[in-house]
Structures are given as C-alpha cells and as structure tokens.
UniProtKB/TrEMBL annotation:
Subcellular location(s) of the protein: Membrane
Predominant localisation class: membrane
Keyword Repeat annotated: yes
GO terms classed as biological process: heterophilic cell-cell adhesion via plasma membrane cell adhesion molecules; homophilic cell adhesion via plasma membrane adhesion molecules
An annotated GO cellular component: membrane
Name this polypeptide is given: Nectin cell adhesion molecule 4b
Transmembrane residue ranges: 339-361
UniProt source species: Kryptolebias marmoratus
SUPFAM superfamilies: Immunoglobulin (SSF48726)
Family designation: Belongs to the nectin family.
Gene3D superfamilies to which the protein is assigned, alphabetical: Immunoglobulins
Region (Disordered): 468-547
Comp. bias intervals (Basic and acidic residues): 468-482, 510-519
Amino acid sequence: MMERIWTQAEVLLLVLLTVASVQGDFVEPLQAVSSLRSQTESQTRLPCQYKVKDWEKVVQVTWSKELPDGTKEQIITAHFAEGQTAFGRYSGRVKFESSNPTEDSALLILSTQESDEGKYSCKISTFPAGNFERHIELSAWTPPIFSLDQMEVVEGQPYGVVAVCRAVGRPLPELSWDTDLPGKSQSRVSEGGSVSIQYSLHPMRDMNGKKLDCLVSHPDMEKQRRISYNLVVKYSPYPTITSPSGNWYVGLEKAELVCNGRGYPESHNIIWTWKGGALPKGVNVSGEKLVFERALHENDSGVYECRVKNSVGEGKAEYLLSVSLTQRQSGDSAADNTMLIIIGAAAGVAVVVLVAVVLLVRHKHQKKNKNLKMQLKEKTDEINSLSGPGSLRRLNSVSSDPRMQSEEYILVKIDKRALNSQMSLERPVFKDSQSTLGGKWGSGGVERDAYGRPVVWNEDRQGLRAVEMDGEKEERRRRVESYVKNSNMSLDSGLPSSLVPLKAQQDDCVGPREPDLGHLQEGSPPPGGDWIPVQSEPDGQEDDESCSSYQISEALANHFYFSNGLLRPRPHSNAILLHPQPQII
C-alpha cells in the first residue's frame, strides 16, 4: 500500500479554498454596480467599504476610472505599509474620506466637474482571500441657469419674435410658455449645452400687459421655476373726451371734460383748444382734465379738442359742447328711458303676436289644404267608380219619376228620338208609304220608318247614316222601343178612354189599322177612321220584328199627329201625359 504524499502546493490550495468559503463582504455599496448623481462644482463621495474576517487582512485599495476607449486610469492608491498615492490630474482633487483607507475606502472628489462623469472602480486586495471590486457610475449634473430676453414691440409691426427664454444645464432643461396670447412658440438647442425658446405674434395694443411667463423644468429641481413677464406693446395715443355730466346749461358750476386714451407709454403732454384757438377765460387745464372754474356761459358752446403725443405717435379727439339756457330736469332722462323701455316692450309683444298669428294662419291653411286633398281624393275615387261598366249602365237607365214636363221638352225629345230612329234603323216600311231608311219616297208622299212615324228627311244626314256602326244603330233602336213601350204602359194604366187605342192589337199582328200618317196634311188633325196598312215586304226580317213595328206605328197614329216637322200629341180635355225621365246617351 502506497502512502500519498501531500505537497506544499496542494496544502496551499486547500487553505485558499477554505478561506474563500468564509471570506468577508462589502458593507457599501451592496450592489456590484450602482449609480450616483452629483452636481458640478460640489463635493462628490464615492462609497467603498470592505469588512474582513479575523484572519483576513486588506493589503491595498485602488480607485480607477474607465476611459472611453475601455482602458482604466488610476486615480489614487492606499497601501497598508506604503501609504496613499494620487495620480496625474487627480492629484490634489481627490482623497480618501477616512484616515485609514484599508478599513473605509470611500473616495472624495473635492470639486466635481463635468469631465468627472463616468464609471469608477474600487478594488480591494486582501490576504489570503484575494481581490474584490465594486463599480459606480457617476453622473455630473449642472443646475439650470435661465433668463428671459424682452423685445421692444410697437403696434403695427409685422409678425415676429416678442420674447426669448434661455437656459443652460446638465442635463438640458425643458422650457415652455404660460400665456393666453395668440402666438407661436419655437425651441432651439445649441451645441454648448444650452436651450432656448421664443414666442412670436403680431403685436396689437390690446395685448399690452398680458401674461407671457416662461416655465423651466430640470431633474435637479423639485418643481418648475417660473419667470414672470407681462408683454409690453407700445402704441400711439387714441384719445376720447368724456364728461361726468352731459347736462350743460347756463350757470352750471364745476363743469369739466376728461381726455382719455393717452397711449403707451402714457404721455402727460395734453394740449386743449377751443374752436381751434385759445380756451375761454376761466377755463384751465389740469392734467388730462379741462376744468371750468366759473359758471358756464352761453358763449362757452363750441368744439373742444384735446391733442395727445407720445414717443410712438400723436392722436386727437373733439367734443361738441352745447350750453342750453335752462336746466333740463333730471327726471326727463328717466322718463325718456322709461318711454324707451315701454316702446321696446310693446314692440316685443307685437312681434310675439305677429309670430303667433302667422303660425295660426299657417296651421289653418295646412288644415284646409289637407281637407281639399281629401275631397279631391274622394271625387277621384267617385269618378273612377263611375267609369266602370256598372256605372255606365246606371247612367243609361231610364228614370221612372212620373213628374210632369213641359210640352216643348216632350216635343223636342220626341223629335230627337224620331231623328235617332230615322238615322239608326234600317228596316223596310209599309208598302203604302213606299219609303225606306235609305231615303226612297213612297206613293203616299210622306216617308215613314219601321214604326209608322213620319221621317224628317235631311239630305245632309245621308252620309251620316252610311258611316254609323251597326252596333250603335241596334242600341239606339232598342232605346226607342223601350221608350214607346213605356209610353204604352202609361196609357194602359188608368188613363181616359180617349187615349186608349180604338182597336185591340192581336198577337199575330192582324187586325184593324189606323189610317196612314203619311197621307195626313201637316198641321191638320188626324182623321178618326180606321186604316189598314199594307203588309211590309219580307226583306229577311223576322216576324216578331214586323209585329213590333206594327204595334209601334198603331200607337203613334192613335195618340200623335205630325205638325211643322214635329210629332205632337192629340188634344184632349182629360188627357194626362206621363213621360219618362230622359236617358243619358
């Protein structure tokens, strides 16, 4: 069995590992890397303190600064046996805070500069534990310095800068404006670490004295700093003349005129004139006032002028003074005001009433238009309903109202229906008349239609008959037949015996006939004897149509006679004629 031999190096390594496991620690700063802020031109303390164990010993302390290129520059060193040593430009500017640097290694920079900003290292060398470090980043701040530059501004100048606020500091301050003026701000930063802000506007006289404050903010200040400033705008005078009392009368005491609006800067150089010349006697100038040191005279009336001049310009104002012989009562003004109020109130009421009337009339017209639209709609619906087939049939129907009508109306209607019959019907007539609807005259000398009625011939109607439609002819023929039948029904219902036909009609159309109306002289009463018409020629007409024509002719011969181109009823003392209502054709 071989024995292991421990060398001296192994023993030393074992001791170091044991010591490292029980090494001391930093009291400050606790973090390996920390930040620190300091103001320029003031003392800065960089903390560094290492607490050792009983068997440990600090041999040396070294402070260094890291340069921009990454290298380190030694600042100061403290050895437990050789003492302290400061290096280069730091000599006389830095020192240890404690007289025993190996126990408290904090470093003091007596007067901090901007160049002192950077990263510092504190290195503690101990035995037997070795080296330990702490890193501190220093920021050097410069307290802000600020100012406000005021510009001379005159009314009427073009748009431009009226104020400039400036500040320097590290880091750069922030500037802003606090104002109600209508303008525009603009900020600028210079390479030397300063910042400025300017305010621009178009100057006007009403801006004079308005607030234009500059606000400065910086991390080194707890709150904003305010630079108060009121804008100054110079302008020429614009005077106006006022008076404490406008009641000017002869004998008024202590009267005066005041000249206002003296511009900026204000001018005390005020010149008063009267009618373009010297003032009246007993009138003096006291500052901006024109004082009458005596009672007013009637000849004090006239135009008074005040002229004001300052460094910017000149202005003037005029006042027409009219002195009355008697004093106007103070109540007159109140009465005038009261009258004005009454007139205004009356005008207001009139306007309200007028508006109400206009609204009422408008509402009424709207309602009336609405009703007219409804009536128009109802009439339109009624016309549309009358244009249907059922309405046309109702309009063409014959009324059964038995009211009496005048003889002229009856004659005109009979003549019209006879004309329609002559124009529309194309049936063969009786042989004894030898006439047709085509216009041929018979041997009797009077043309008759299919119903035995005299035809009023008119040569101008031949062309009209030829062009009428068959459907219209048939319709008008049926209406004539309906009229005649209605007339026969009226004659058969309780009329005197003189209006009843003398001979009863037979179903087969054979029986007694009345004399032919075509042989009657115009204007003479028809004869009372019977007459037998010649049978009509069969031209393809049906037997029932011939029978109907015979009955109609017989009825007309019994109750009507031809006179002056018209059919007239036979005279009778007890005759009562009932005529149907006219048809709408």
